[in-house]
Amino acid sequence: MVMQNNKSEKKQEKKGFRKISKDKYIVAGVITLLIFTLGITLGFIIDDHRYNFIEEVNQEQDVDYMSLQLQFLYLNSFSNYDNCPILSTTLKETIKDLSESLNEVIAYEESKELSSNRKTLTTRRYLLDNLRYWLLAWESKSKCDLDIVPILYFYSKDCPSCPTQGTILSYYKDIFDEKLLVFPINLDLREDEPMVEMVMSQFNIGKYPTLIVDNKKYEGVIKKERLGEIICESLDDSEHCND
After folding, report:
1. Distance of alpha carbon 188 from alpha carbon 209, whole angstroms
2. Alpha carbon 67 to chain centroid distance?
3. Pairing between strand 180-186 and 149-155?
4. What is the rounded CA–CA span in Å between residue 242 and residue 1?
5. What does the pLDDT read at residue 141?
6. pLDDT tens digits along 147-194
7. Are β-strands 210-213 and 216-219 bridged in parallel, bridged antiparallel, or unpaired?
8. Nearest CA to 65 among 158, 130, 20?
9. CB atoms within 10 A of CB 26
């Protein structure tokens, strides 16, 4: 009789233990699901916040570009007024802002392992901004005789020597500052953005990297000394070209 009672008690203890264990698993599963859901939700919120920041940058660049376009149109319409100094200052400041803000955006976007529609739209937008500012800088240099050097820099991620050219360009950008305007064009976007193919066709781009300086094409990596000479040939006055 005592043995039967002991067995009965052990069975009850076993059932109780199983019930407690089962409850623990359910609670743990619910907590895990909540954490997972919270993580996904926070990811979407952060992504939306960053994308909204990108949109704000784009809107600001749109307004700045419209202002520059209007200034250039005004110059063409009223040639008797000398507004070139104002246009020059605005152009350089706007391009500097473009370079600083959108480079940060692109650096963030390119750090993602997976591509997305937002990433494609952002990189396309950056490329188009570079093209239209390069075009305006070139026209402004011709119209106002601005002492600047606009450079189109064609590169690709699959180009092993492109980072070397990028480093050399950054070196001279630090030296010449606002007189040197570099506009990088990512050729990997040619399937997503028709303008890439159009510009490549115009300059007959077949090698990477390629630089367009004053509408002259330089293929392959341009060594530091040679690029310095090319930049100085395009400038009328620079303390860094008198050495």
Report:
1. 12
2. 22
3. parallel
4. 112
5. 84
6. 899 999 999 989 999 999 999 999 999 999 888 999 999 999 998 889
7. antiparallel
8. 130
9. 10
For residue 226, CA distances in Å to 104, 147, 148, 231 come to 30, 20, 18, 9
Higher pLDDT, 205 or 120: 205
CA 63 to chain centre: 19
Q: How many CB atoms lie within 10 A of CB 238?
A: 16
Which residue from 90, 84, 155 is spatially nearest to 123, judged by alpha carbons?
Answer: 155
Instruction: Retrieve residue 16's tokens.
Output: 């109780």
User: Quick one: tokens of 213?
Assistant: 């300086």
H or E element in which residue 184 lies? strand 180-186
Angle 115-118-122 from CA coordinates, rounded to 5°: 105
Fold of 64-234: Glutaredoxin (3.40.30)
Could you tell me which of 91, 76, 70, 98 has the C-alpha nearest to residue 147?
91
